[in-house]
Amino acid sequence: MPRRASRVLLITDPSYAAGHVDAVVGTVADALGPRFAVQLRDKEASSGELRVRARALRALTRAGGASFIVNGSPELAAEVDADGVHLPGFAVDPSVLERARAIVGPARAIHVPVHARDEVVLARDGGADAVLVSPIFDSPGKGPARGVAALAEARALAHLWLYALGGIDALHVAECHRAGADGVAIIRALLDAPDPVATARALISPWTRTPQPSP
User: Fold this and answer.
1) Which of 16, 84, 172, 178 has its CA 20 to 30 A from that of 75?
2) Is there a domain that residue 214 lies in?
3) Which domain does 155 fall in, by range?
4) Is the residue at 101 inside a domain?
5) In a domain, 75, yes or no
6) Is residue 2 part of a domain?
7) 166 and 143 Cβ atoms separated by less than 8 Å
8) Average pLDDT of 43-58?
């Protein structure tokens, strides 16, 4: 499991202004510390733009003691001293995991998305540290919801850090926890929240009420 595994993973969305994202990241990182992580995802940005955003978010997360994950680029993750990398192409080409490990080294976490049983097994056998299991609930453009049974299945298959992704909010998080999730990955639930810190605390509440062993 990742050495610095969080309960709430915020995936950035370029449709939100950078200033807004930075404000949310800064306040939530200060409040949650290592229980919070941020994944930089922007498929349209140039490499230079991504580098600028990565450095800014790395500084904000480090100041608050939170983790920082880079989407898609092991090289950028290593360059900015991120805590890990997310590999969106894993299901198409599992060998990207081995190549990424050679770049980021053993100390950084490798996250992969999983949408089916076979992908959980590939992640487990390929040496991933964490999986984002989705879509758990209805989420725009993500296909049919798989339900929390997908989390229970992944938990039975692999001793990896499990994030629930897809339609997650404070009303659903307890179900994810009971099904075996170690945390939740969210976008709108936090970036649209009137009070991001209160929302983040609600999202981690099942794990703070139930003591869990450190990864």
Assistant:
1) 16
2) no
3) 8-209
4) yes
5) yes
6) no
7) no
8) 97
Checking if the pLDDT of 215 tops 50, the result is no
**For residues 120 and 116, what is the distance between their CA atoms, to the nearest angstrom?**
7
For helices 18-32 and 196-209, give the axis angle rounded to 10 degrees: 40
Residue 210: band (very low, low, confident or very high) from pLDDT cuts 50, 70, 90: low
Please provide residue 126's backbone torsions phi and psi, each rounded to the nearest 5 degrees: -90, -5
Closest of 138, 123, 179, 164 to residue 1, by C-alpha: 123
The predicted model scores a pTM of 0.94
HEC assignment per residue over the chain:
CCCCCCCEEEECCCCCCHHHHHHHHHHHHHHHHHHEEEEECCCCCCHHHHHHHHHHHHHHHHHHCCEEEEECCHHHHHHCCCCEEECCCCCCCCHHHHHHHHHHCCCCEEEEEECCHHHHHHHHHHCCCEEEECCCCCCCCCCCCCCCHHHHHHHHHCCCEEEEECCCCCCCHHHHHHHCCCEEEECHHHHCCCCHHHHHHHHHHHHHHCCCCCC
* Contact by Cβ (8 Å): 206, 173: yes
CATH number at residue 19: 3.20.20.70
